[in-house]
Amino acid sequence: MNSINLTTKLGALTLKNPVVTASGTFGFGLEYAQLFDIGMLGGVVVKGLTLNPRPGNPPPRIVETPAGLLNAIGLENPGLESFLRDTLPCLKEYNVPVIVNISGNTIDEYAAMAAGLNESGVQAVEVNISCPNVKQGGMVFGTSPEQAAQVTAAVRANTALPLIVKLSPNVTDIVTIAQGVAAAGADAISLINTLLGMAIDVQRKRPALGNVFGGLSGPAVKPVALRMVWQVSQAVELPIIGMGGIASSQDALEFILAGASAVSVGTGNFINPKLTVEIIEGLAEYCREEGINDISDLIGAAWRRQ
Amino acid sequence: MECNKVEILAVKAVSQHYYLLTLMAPRLARSVRPGQFVQVRVADGLDPLLRRPFSVHDWDAKQGTVALLVQVRGKGSKMLADKRPGERLDVLGPLGRGFEISETKGRALLVGGGIGAAPLWSLARQLKDKTWDLTVLLGASADSLLVKAVDFSHLANTIIATDDGSAGIKGKITKLLPLAASDYNQVYACGPKPMLAALAVWTKAAGFPLQVSLDEVMACGMGVCLGCAQPVKHNKSVNYAKVCTQGPVFDADEVVWNE
């Protein structure tokens, strides 16, 4: 039997398979390395980093909803310098492409972080302009086409690394934002970050999250994410990392067929810590069953067949 | 730490609100320590979505069994209580930092509020094995919410309080503290935060070291999601600690109680 080619390309970055982890759901990779060989993954997107350490939001920070998870972590992280010094050397041992997710309060902070990663040996930068849980920066940049483009351009000017921009779904027209970041120099687009939501604790008669609002993820958001991948992949000539509620290889295939070149597993890691490797196996199995030698033949196949 | 499907050996109702789930989990039984917990996937479906954390109530390393005490509180715990022997359960663990036990024997006070008594049973067994002298205080809002899956009185002087007086002394568990007055080398506690906070005040005044096991909502259980943040004192500043990996057991002096 011929072996299946699972490799996929995100601009200049080639992944050995299309399954990566979603930022904030896989720590810095080392936690899950206790359970399986993370070197099997297409890539690890690390917990979102900021230039300086951030303590995060006050608890309660998470609430479960039907088939979903609301979080208001608030970008708690040790800061870029600590990551580069203390964590990255350990992560490099696992022979897995490392994609660093960055956030900033200002465009200058994004630029400084991009510059700081140039000589670090990471494989790509994912620019987070879509975090709903911080007061400054975050989603503010991701909901304005002009600001999204400005952040992208500033990062582009400061790095030669493959540049992925992670977009917010909390917008009226996702295509316009995607076109803006594509024109500003992005190499790939991540779709989607969490949807802004909330829950109320009826016992305490107040919002369930300390931050009132949070980002909704998990299977509940999958139809929205899939729709956005479908729309953007037809409008923009950039590879897309599709994410939002992927909980099986079937889900991953839907995103690839909708136009994603890679998929990212987020909340699903919490439910099944080995989900990423099961999805890789499931994709290969599907290709075998369908007689497909190269998974890239499936990218966008659903809209090409309309 | 492992993530495996293990066989359910027994599901036994031990009171109106509590079920004892016995699992065949040899590797877990060999490695778990008092105060550690597991994350259990209650159903194969996606609603409820998250795993549920349960402290390990008891285990038998020779038999390879592990017991969880489940309080039926919502959809997930009800689904667990409805499981039947022979079914398999997806269990991640052991997780977290358990109780620290000094090798030098002494006198210990164990304080359990409601289901918080669950992890204290295995702790009591281990302390007894090391010939510690134990006193146990158990409290709940009513008799039906007292943990009776085990009989602490076999191991220790045990005093009970219920809010409604349906068992033991009427009143909060903290009312029992004067009755348990002694010199303790270590106090261990698990239960509602207000109970733990009151206990922290009492132990500090008495000069007893207190270890508390905290209960927080968490998604991953392994230090990734950062959902289970607990403010703790570090040098002169306050940071967030992860209850799942830096706890669930903390020194009471570290914990910021007035949230």
UniProtKB/TrEMBL annotation, chain A:
Subcellular localization, as worded in the UniProt entry: Cytoplasm
Domain Dihydroorotate dehydrogenase catalytic: 6-285
Active site residues per record: 131
Molecular function via GO: dihydroorotate dehydrogenase (NAD+) activity
GO BP: 'de novo' pyrimidine nucleobase biosynthetic process; 'de novo' UMP biosynthetic process
Cofactor(s) the protein needs: FMN
InterPro entries for the chain: Aldolase_TIM, DHO_dehydrogenase, DHOD_1B, Dihydroorotate_DH_1, Dihydroorotate_DH_1_2, Dihydroorotate_DH_cat, Dihydroorotate_DH_CS, Dihydroorotate_DH_I
Functional pathway: Pyrimidine metabolism; UMP biosynthesis via de novo pathway; orotate from (S)-dihydroorotate (NAD(+) route): step 1/1
Keywords for this protein: Cytoplasm, Flavoprotein, FMN, NAD, Oxidoreductase, Pyrimidine biosynthesis
Binding site residues for FMN: 23, 47-48, 101, 128, 166, 192, 218, 244-245, 266-267
EC number annotated for this UniProt entry: 1.3.-.-
Role noted for this protein: Catalyzes the conversion of dihydroorotate to orotate with NAD(+) as electron acceptor.
NCBIfam families, alphabetized: PRK07259.1, pyrD_sub1_fam
Protein name in UniProt: Dihydroorotate dehydrogenase
Organism: Metallumcola ferriviriculae
From TrEMBL, chain B:
The organism's place on the tree of life at top rank: Bacteria
FAD-binding FR-type domain location: 1-101
GO MF annotation list: 2 iron, 2 sulfur cluster binding; electron transfer activity; flavin adenine dinucleotide binding; metal ion binding; oxidoreductase activity
Cofactor: [2Fe-2S] cluster; FAD
Entry keywords, A to Z: 2Fe-2S, Electron transport, FAD, Flavoprotein, Iron, Iron-sulfur, Metal-binding, Pyrimidine biosynthesis, Transport
InterPro entries with a match to the protein in the record: Cbr1-like_FAD-bd_dom, Cyt_c3_hydrogenase_gsu, Dihydroorotate_DH_ele_sf, Dihydroorotate_DH_Fe-S-bd, Dihydroorotate_DHASE_ETsu, FAD-bd_FR_type, FNR_nucleotide-bd, PyrK_electron_transfer
UniProt key word rRNA processing: no
Residues that coordinate or bind [2Fe-2S] cluster: 220, 225, 228, 244
Chain residues that bind FAD: 52-55, 69-71
Pathway: Pyrimidine metabolism; UMP biosynthesis via de novo pathway; orotate from (S)-dihydroorotate (NAD(+) route): step 1/1
Cofactor binding note from Swiss-Prot or TrEMBL: Binds 1 [2Fe-2S] cluster per subunit. Binds 1 FAD per subunit.
Function comment: Responsible for channeling the electrons from the oxidation of dihydroorotate from the FMN redox center in the PyrD type B subunit to the ultimate electron acceptor NAD(+).
Protein family according to the UniProt entry: Belongs to the PyrK family.
Subunit annotation: Heterotetramer of 2 PyrK and 2 PyrD type B subunits.
Protein name in the entry: Dihydroorotate dehydrogenase B (NAD(+)), electron transfer subunit
Lineage of producing organism: Bacteria, Bacillati, Bacillota, Clostridia, Neomoorellales
Gene encoding the protein: pyrK
